[in-house]
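Researcher: Go.
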Amino acid sequence: MKFFEFAAMVAALLFLSACENMDEPFALSEERQLAERINQLGGRQSFLLPDESDLATIPQDPRNPLTPEKVELGRLLFHETGIATEAITAGGLKTYSCASCHFAGAGFQAGTFQGIGDGGEGFGFNGERRMVATLSNPDSLDVQPIRTPTAMNGAYQEVMLWNGQFGATGVNEGTEASWRAGTPIANNFLGFQGLETQAIAGLGVHRLNMTSELAAELGYETLFDLTFPDIPREVRYNKVHAGLAIAAFERTLLSNRAPFQLWLRGNSNALTMEEIRGALLFFGKADCVSCHSGPALNSMTFHAQGMSDLVDCPEPTFGTSVDNGENKGRGGFTGNAEDDYKFKVPQLYSLRRSPFYGHGASFRNLRAVVAYKNNAEVENPRVTARAMPASFVPLALTEAEIDDLTTFLSSGLDDSSLRRYEPGALLSGQCFPNNDASARRDIGCD
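Model: Structure:
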């Protein structure tokens, strides 16, 4: 073979090789852009969630320090249907739990647009068939007039619920006039942060119980003794300490195995190209990070987004009304008109696990939420123009960019192994998250 023929062949092979790998430099470039942008925003550590077993690094209420015993007690009580001894509906006794509306399969949200505790029955495959029990009086249902928020990454929320009403610290300092006596909000006077306050109040609101007799009956007495050895026995087995244990467990509900979290830890293959492009939009052009920041991609700020209320759902809802104070968000709690229609910025992990979005469940897929934000056209006619923030403007995203951003939110932020947070079994031996006959058949634990 002549020299010029050999040289031509080598050149052709190099050209073909370059064509076959032409996407690689582009891919590396986009990943570098994402890494540089994250560094500009404080570095990977600013967005990194700790391991759930590393209790010392998890944000916690200094008045409720985390211990392995407390977390384990809370894990069991969170799922325990046996503590539903204050049910007021026919057949509701010992059939529901905290996990009825916050279970792992749905990303610790409800599996329906409106969660049902006491008065509900069934489960389906992933909570989608939880419905009003046949013999229940709708007026006595344990439901909330607003979409059930997720319990994921609650350690990064100093106050809880869409309106932030639970918690005595942080942004709730100075709101004492709204801690009305005789209401669940009065639990703020106990002085705890939001997770602890919500867990304590929630036991009462959702008709769950804890007494020394119940702890002994269900087999939890020893765990209470190990968890709260310094608390006098006469007050050890009550709703306050049960709530503190549940809150401790909730602080460990961290979506630290999502692809974006793995990428932050150095796994360059954890994100797909679509997810990387979506992340670049999230932290760049779409500027989602201006509100959704930190390890949980949330914040303790409140903003009006003009989304519809739960009463506007096409499906029948219970306990809802256009006049419900919950529809006014923060303003419904503080009584300050400047806070009307403002809702707390939610965390963004594992949202794909339950297809209902917004405080009123008015969106049924994540792409619809992104498109709504992109168009910036108010959905709820009851929300005044004065309430809308200056930042509520069109994002000028293309359809392809909407797809990429949706992919990042849907799969890039999804921790697919949340079942690790469920107990293997309850000490009572009952089924969870629900224990009515229909749910037991659905779950397959009869």
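Model: The chain has two domains: 38-52+259-412, 58-254+429-443.
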